[in-house]
From TrEMBL:
It comes from Catenuloplanes nepalensis. Residues 69-213 form the tRNA/rRNA methyltransferase SpoU type domain. Residues 4-54 form the RNA 2-O ribose methyltransferase substrate binding domain. This is TrmH family RNA methyltransferase. Belongs to the class IV-like SAM-binding methyltransferase superfamily. RNA methyltransferase TrmH family. InterPro entries: Alpha/beta_knot_MTases (IPR029028), rRNA_MeTrfase_TrmH (IPR004441), SpoU_MeTrfase (IPR001537), SpoU_subst-bd (IPR013123), tRNA_m1G_MTases_N (IPR029026). GO terms for biological process: methylation. Pfam families: SpoU_methylase, SpoU_sub_bind. It comes from the Bacteria. PANTHER family: 23S RRNA (GUANOSINE-2'-O-)-METHYLTRANSFERASE RLMB (PTHR46429), TRNA_RRNA METHYLTRANSFERASE (PTHR46429:SF2). Keywords: Methyltransferase, Transferase.
């Protein structure tokens, strides 16, 4: 944190936070409601805003930590979806989330709010080339599973066969365009979530949750 802004009422309400900031040498600046409204990007701000450093982690550093599960978002531009996937990845035990290609800024206000704090729990990686991300992940010992409705492999079948009990990166594309053919070709497997009803597809965040939790269960007792 670089600086903390808040209305007098909010600084009193969150006294422990403002006190901790002051003790850490962080400037705490009281502002009125009008100034706070300019600083915030919500209709009804909670009265307190922090200016923070962005904490991107280079992909090699994130992979060097040996995560068992990683989520990658390729060209996903919807901040709500992206933030929800990051939150789900954190809940499933992922060690890193990669924003690849022309993806939404993970520090976009809506994206940050959608993570519900999980942004601070996982390594956040930004990388310009989704294909390079896949190749680097595979070189780092991860099996890369590309989520697609046209996959050759069935998620349920992989789970039943025990094939998910490996260090894994799941890569997800946008709802509108999916993953590029280059990314699909670079991945180890193209995996589809089986549809048992009459729905044509799942929302991106829902599909990611199904995939990540299938891996999380398989990896629960995984030992290298």
């Amino acid at each position: 944190m670089i600086e903390l802004f808040g209305t007098p009422e909010a600084l009193h309400r969150y006294a422990a936070l403002s006190r901790s900031a002051s003790e850490a040498g962080i400037e705490v600046s009281p502002v009125d409601g009008e100034a706070l409204a300019v600083l915030a990007d919500t209709v009804q701000p909670q009265g307190i805003v922090a200016l923070c450093h962005q904490t991107d982690v280079p992909l090699p550093d994130a992979l060097a930590r040996g995560p068992k599960l990683v989520a990658a978002l390729a060209e996903i531009r919807d901040p709500g979806n992206a933030g929800t996937v990051l939150r789900t990845a954190d809940a499933a035990g992922a060690g890193a989330v990669v924003f690849a290609g022309d993806a939404v800024d993970p520090y976009n206000g809506k994206c940050v709010r959608s993570t519900a704090g999980s942004l601070f729990h996982v390594d956040v990686v930004r990388a310009p080339d989704p294909v390079a991300v896949v190749r680097e992940a595979r070189a780092g010992g991860l099996t890369v599973l590309a989520a697609t409705g046209y996959g050759d492999a069935d998620l349920d079948a992989l789970a039943d066969e025990g094939a998910l009990a490996v260090r894994t990166m799941w890569i997800f594309g946008s709802e509108a365009h999916g993953l590029s053919e280059a990314v699909l070709e670079a991945a180890d497997l193209r995996v589809k979530v089986p549809m048992h009803g009459r729905a044509e597809s799942l929302n991106l965040a829902a599909a990611a949750a199904v995939c990540l939790y299938a891996s999380a269960r398989a990896l629960r007792d995984f030992k290298e």
